[in-house]
Write a structure and sequence with these properties.
The protein is 39% helix and 20% strand. It is of the alpha+beta class and 505 residues long. Among the domains are: 37 residues, no CATH class; 101 residues, no CATH class. The longest helix is centred in the last third of the chain and has 37 residues.
């Protein structure tokens, strides 16, 4: 994973980090001088499709605010600063999802300040100690081991690397740190160890710093989201790894193309049948106020220009690479700036994009829910029913409006209930984040009661009211109607002389 992550991170960084890779990404040709190679490297620029693809894909599920359902006041408060760094759970989860989409996976450690030396629960509460989430990238985790217990997978050992700086006068001394978290799955306790090593020590032995107990936890509170093909435990093939390789290919091809243009797009002045004096050659110059002469009678000056066939072929190769990069970037409008793409093909591509990102969004929801459950374990709260809700509706606004029109027509035809209609409209992100379905249904019920009076049904999906002569059947018909029998039914009582209630939607 380190080899893959190093390559992906360098490509994701764009021109600056790809140049830093030097000959790893841009080979030096045989007999090419170092000066010429450095000039070629400095004139090569990245078309960063990888960053565009990762950022665009990770933004889709977070277009609306991440919501937690079935929470309690403590969890709602923690979500405002989920990592004790001032980040809302939505921001934290977006970063988590983005790193997983790039590297193929990302990790969350649900931590808690040390409270083993506090005498009582009151002391813990007074200290403000509470669980929080930490995000770790692939390179931050040295090792992790899972164990399958009773059909469930539990993490039993994790080693996490970090670094700290210590001031020494006007200098800083860096220390490498390894945090070891280990637990026996047959028990409910474990250990947390801290080891250190001077960064400038050249790989000397690690020094043991401290050890604290890990209590009331049946496993290490460590959550991993896989965004790609899982090949083994903590090994995944990232979604966009082929796009990264294609961007390196584009980097090499564009460098060659620019080098060819630098050498061939300017016409070269040539002469034949002319003998130039070495002294004159030193001061030889071309300009609007210079005169070229040929001492020999048959001598002549002329410009030489390449035909441009190789240049054109190189340009076509770059365009082909860019189209392939668009496809690998899950771009639903692939090639529209180069050629016409039929609507049905765009629809197929868009469905493919949405399917991939939708599955990743579901995996992210599961990871967040599992992390929340670990927060509950730290405090003895049951968060097993908490749900994380991300946006999984990725269609464009025009399509969503058309879908809502069909839903409204279905509601008017008594095909669905009002609550179902509101829920579906909310899923399509056409209602604000503060929309509450239960509050809305309750408010509409009060409006119905005020408009229709007691016993009058205004929802077209409700059972037919006894005030409706056409639906009442025998025995409740209108006495003024010769075709019915029974008592005279009351006339509808709607405001402003209306004979039907106003539509609420």
């Amino acid at each position: 994973m380190q080899t893959r992550t190093a390559m992906l991170r360098a490509v994701y960084g764009g021109t600056e980090t790809m140049r830093a890779q030097d000959k790893t990404f841009l080979p030096q040709y045989e007999k090419e001088s170092d000066a010429r190679y450095n000039a070629r490297l400095a004139s090569t620029f990245a078309l960063n499709k990888l960053r565009e693809a990762v950022d665009a894909a990770s933004a889709k599920p977070f277009r609306t605010l991440l919501k937690l359902q079935n929470t309690d006041p403590n969890l709602d408060l923690w979500a405002q600063d989920i990592d004790l760094q001032g980040n809302h759970l939505h921001v934290f989860a977006h970063q988590f999802f983005n790193n997983a989409m790039l590297d193929g996976m990302c990790h969350i450690l649900v931590d808690h300040p040390d409270t083993y030396n506090m005498k009582s629960l009151a002391d813990q509460k007074a200290s403000g100690a509470r669980p929080f989430m930490k995000m770790y990238k692939v390179d931050d985790v040295c090792a992790a081991y899972d164990m399958y217990v009773g059909g469930d997978t539990k993490t039993v050992h994790v080693r996490i690397r970090s670094q700290r700086a210590e001031r020494d006068g006007f200098k800083e001394v860096l220390y490498n740190q390894i945090r070891v978290i280990e637990i026996d799955p047959t028990k409910t306790s474990g250990i947390v160890q801290l080891w250190e090593q001077k960064a400038a020590s050249g790989g000397s032995n690690w020094t043991f710093i401290e050890e604290t107990p890990l209590q009331n936890m049946a496993e290490v509170p460590f959550v991993t989201m896989y965004a790609g093909e899982k090949e083994a435990d903590y090994q995944a093939r990232p979604v966009f790894i082929d796009l990264a390789y294609k961007q390196i290919e584009h980097w090499i091809s564009s460098s060659d193309q620019r080098s060819i243009l630098s050498a061939a797009r300017f016409p070269m002045l040539a002469c034949s049948g002319v003998q130039i004096d070495p002294e004159d050659e030193k001061q030889f110059a071309i300009g609007p106020y210079k005169v070229l002469y040929a001492p020999e009678a048959n001598g002549r000056w002329y410009y030489v220009e390449p035909r441009g066939t190789a240049i054109d072929s190189g340009m076509k190769d770059i365009e082909k690479l860019e189209m392939q990069m668009d496809m690998m970037a899950l771009n639903p409008v692939t090639g529209t700036h180069r050629q016409y793409v039929p609507q049905n093909e765009r629809d197929i591509q868009e469905t493919r994009v949405h399917s991939v990102v939708h599955d990743m969004a579901i995996a992210c929801q599961d990871a967040i829910e599992r992390a929340v459950r670990f927060m509950g374990q730290w405090t003895g709260a049951d968060y097993s029913q908490v749900q994380a809700i991300l946006n999984t509706e990725f269609s464009n606004t025009k399509d969503r409006i058309e879908e809502v029109k069909q839903l409204v027509a279905l509601y008017q035809a008594r095909g669905i209930q009002r609550e179902t209609l509101l829920r579906e409209v909310y899923k399509r992100n056409l209602l604000g984040d503060d929309f509450n379905l239960q509050d809305e249904v309750a408010a509409l019920a009060k409006i119905d009661a005020a408009l229709g009076g007691a016993g009058t049904q205004t929802d077209p999906n409700a059972a037919a009211s006894t005030t409706d002569p056409a639906a009442s059947g025998t025995g409740t018909g209108n006495a003024n109607d010769p075709g019915t029998t029974g008592a005279k039914a009351p006339l509808p009582d709607f405001p402003a002389g209306q004979t039907r209630p106003k539509k609420q939607i």
